Amino acid sequence: MQESMLAASQSHNNIQLHAPTGSGKTLGFSLPLLNFIEVQGGSQCMIIAPSRELALQITSVWQDMKTGLNITCCYGGHDRRNEARSLANAPEVIIGTPGRLADHCRNERFSKDQLQMVVVDEYDKALELGFEEDINTILAYLEHVEKHYLVSATDQIVLPEHWNNLPFHKLSGGQHELAQQLEKYKIISPKDEKTTYLERLLGVLDKQQGIIFFNHREAVDRVSDFLDNIGLPHETFHGGMEQMDREKALIKFRNGSVNYILATDLAARGLDIQNMDFVVHYQSTRDEASFIHRNGRTARMSAEGKSFLLLSEDEFLPDFAAEFEDYRLPSNHNSVSVPSMATLYFGGGKKEKINKTDVLGVLIKQGKLNPNEVGKIDVMDHSAFVAVPKSKIKDLISTLRQVKIKGKKIKVDRCW
């Protein structure tokens, strides 16, 4: 798919890419952009994403490519003045959410003269979230742009208003191969025993990682309380949470401090989580596209995965889930293992010149950990997070309470 995008970009200005979650489409549209910027010199591109998480993930991909280009990410909750200052310096790559980018366009906070390419990623999701007007505002401001990429996981979409008359070259890839790796099951529970059946299912899936999907944040919080009461570590993820809390939930999931995330469809797209073992539809969506995106969180690329549809006996089975096979839970109640790792928080990050090597060095030298006891390290702008053995976290917090990194005293605590 990436090779096809690179080839198509040489002969087509406008490309509509239809590819599933996990197929590598971020690089698919980013590599042609990079190639164009390098060839043209001084040209800029804009990438529009429907959520902060996706915008940040795309930014991370570009940073990992080590291009040396200036990249600015714009989204709600971020300092608008800092974004405006960055935009005034004409970054080669502008990434952001529709609302914030539309605001910058309306107020003409950047020069549009050098901007030559526009990408709308996950456009079907942007439509679903009501961003069509903001996207049309951006495209109207950038009406001189001649190269456009429209990216989605489904081909059942309506083109943005300002692109209706453009001839789009269509590409697709990956769906058939991914679908073959996904096992699909349905479980029918008695009306008032759905949470108990979820607990039993997690016992069967012991030590595996997955997302449990809900239609409403209230249901996320209700089932979260249930898992808290039975002592099962997990995280939640929905639009009612602060951005940093959502980021911490993903960090703890990726580093193995928790095995489960309870989430709304906000987690169905744009999150870079590798090798997820399963998804559970605790509440089934009536929208087939959303259902497909949820399933796309597992069985990514060549990996295998399982999708479970958990229905109480009074709930309907969607037509698009008719192929799900019956799954019989064992009569015995398997206990669920608690992860052996926990996440340690450091109150300093990239802006304080702290990197992964600094964190690793502190944990080995002052914390007396063996290198193989140190898990995944994530360094943010003003914080860092690292997975460590849960059995040693209290001693580490006590030992590192007065720790200094590069001459600065850094707070160390458990990430809650």
Please report the total strand number as a whole number. Answer: 20
If you consult CATH, what is the topology of the largest domain?
Rossmann fold
Q: CATH superfamily of the largest domain, called what?
A: P-loop containing nucleotide triphosphate hydrolases
How many DSSP helices? 14
The number of distinct structural domains comes to: 3
Decide which structural class fits the backbone.
alpha/beta
Share of β-strand residues: 15-25%
List low-pLDDT spans.
Answer: none
Helicity level, as a percent range?
25-40%
3D architecture notes:
This protein has 416 residues and is of the alpha/beta class. It has 3 domains: 2-173, P-loop containing nucleotide triphosphate hydrolases (Rossmann fold, 3-Layer(aba) Sandwich), CATH 3.40.50.300; 181-326, P-loop containing nucleotide triphosphate hydrolases (Rossmann fold, 3-Layer(aba) Sandwich); 341-414, Alpha-Beta Plaits. Helices cover 33% and strands 21% of the residues. It has a 7-stranded parallel beta sheet, sandwiched between helices. Strands 10-11-9-12-13-8-14 form a 7-stranded parallel beta sheet, with helices on both faces. Strands 16-17-15-20 form a 4-stranded antiparallel beta sheet, covered by helices on one side.
